[in-house]
Amino acid sequence: MTIEEVKTVLYIGAGTMGSANSLVAAIAGYEVILHDAREENLASVGERHDGAAGFLVQTGFCTAGAASEARGRVTLEPDLAKAVAKTDLVSESVFEDRALKREIHANLDSLCPSNTILTTNTSSLLVSDLEDAVGRGDRFAALHSHLGALLVDIVGGPRTSPETIDILRRYVVSLGAVPLVMKKEYPGYVFNAMNGPVLRAAAGLLLDEHASFEEVDRAWMIDRQAPLGPFGMMDLFGLDLMLDSWKHPSPDPQRESFRERVVPFLTRYLESGKVGLKAGRGFYDYAAPSFREPGFLEAEPVSGIASDALHTVLLRSAIVLAAKGVATREDIDLAWRTASSLRQGPFEILAEMGFDGLRAILEREVVAGRLSSEQADRTLASLLELRD
After folding, report:
1. Contact in structure between 160 and 137 (CB atoms under 8 Å)
2. Interacting residues of 178 by C-beta distance below 8 A, sequence separation 6+
3. In whole angstroms, how far apart are CA 309 and each of 138, 214, 216, 340, 362?
4. For the chain, which domains are there?
5. Of 5, 20, 218, 240, which is the most buried if we count CB atoms within 10 A?
6. Residue 301: is the preceding peptide bond cis (ω within 30°)?
7. 12, 104 Cβ separation under 8 angstroms
8. Residue-wise pLDDT tens digits, 57-93
């Protein structure tokens, strides 16, 4: 059911994310307007809706009939002034450029009706990077969706009102999605703040020749009963997207050192046409990827090194999120389970592993040189504080 406060939703940016989200909102019963300054993007919406509808039907989110009917509730509008006329909620999904997003939201702030809530779907910027560009800070927030998953992060800025957060939470529920209201902003939100380090650790294991990509994926798939390993996930996301995310310089010396190694490594893949699933080739060949073969999980070896490294970064990232008050342990687990479709969140893994089990893994990582003793001690101390 739709919520009373929202009748019409405007999506800014008709790319993959904006198109998919516009269809989900229309399926829920909202009148939807999709705007893009580039008419070629609007011309491709039909194709993008086809892909999104196919995925939603395949996963059981809706019927083919519901998806088809919903498309009639989506209006394409190249004129922004017309698009905002009766809009109750705006979701912006344009290119990840701070200046561009600030310009767009300042323009929206001047054009939209006074009651309109403005949201950004930014994945790499913080609410505080953008919110002072608008006068209506009480009705501005991040509403961040995950393509292919039902998790939606909700993050308020310093002026966002509780009423706005409540409307957005109920709006997400009305979509049939899972809202995660974060206590404070944080780079990568919750799921990406955990999954990003897992993918980086996987790439590091390969670059350091500790394990092949198949061995890394096999370890993760067995340990977590997962349909994909980290390299399968990178293929799914697209190696072009992974490369773009790792191109940006970082003030963190460790990440910067890793960036200098992983960028040329991924560039070689892209230059060979290995972009991932969408190109039919990435780390795996998608005519018949080996991880789907019946004997893949039984093959040798199963890398204990990979298992330790991947679990260490996942669990440490989750502990940091909870220790910094970004989200509760329960919400961190919910975010992980919802976005990954795996049965256990990190704190559920920790409960099963026990304090001594975590300490043993951390000690092995210290011996391997991938973790300092100070980092291990801080992780254990933070976990003890959370338990208290």
Report:
1. yes
2. 150, 151, 152, 172, 334, 338
3. 42, 15, 10, 19, 9
4. 8-181 (3.40.50.720), 188-388 (1.10.1040.50)
5. 218
6. yes
7. yes
8. 999 999 999 999 999 999 999 999 999 999 999 999 9
